[in-house]
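Translate structure to sequence.
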């Protein structure tokens, strides 16, 4: 799957990009028709500790899924967002299976 990582207001290191790519690749076992995904990593300018914002947009034929999570670290936010996307993809797959 093609994963585009976009860092907003900071420069992203290779280790984080590799982590995101690896985690997004795991989504293909839930739904194999994923075309591409965009991952937006943002640092909110707040005094709170949970200022890391991750937005994942998944493109599948006929639909787009968007999940946004905010956590203390990007890894944690990516993990939570990916779990939400997994649930959405499984629902989509089940929905398609009932129509066949």
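Result:
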């Amino acid at each position: 799957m093609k994963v585009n990582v976009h860092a907003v207001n900071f420069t992203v290191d290779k280790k984080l990009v590799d982590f995101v790519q690896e985690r997004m690749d795991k989504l293909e076992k839930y739904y194999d028709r994923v075309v591409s995904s965009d991952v937006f990593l943002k640092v909110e300018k707040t005094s709170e500790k949970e200022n890391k914002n991750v937005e994942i947009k998944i493109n599948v034929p006929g639909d787009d899924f968007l999940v946004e999570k905010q956590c203390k670290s990007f890894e944690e936010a990516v993990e939570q967002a990916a779990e939400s996307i997994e649930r959405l993809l499984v629902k989509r797959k089940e929905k398609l299976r009932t129509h066949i």
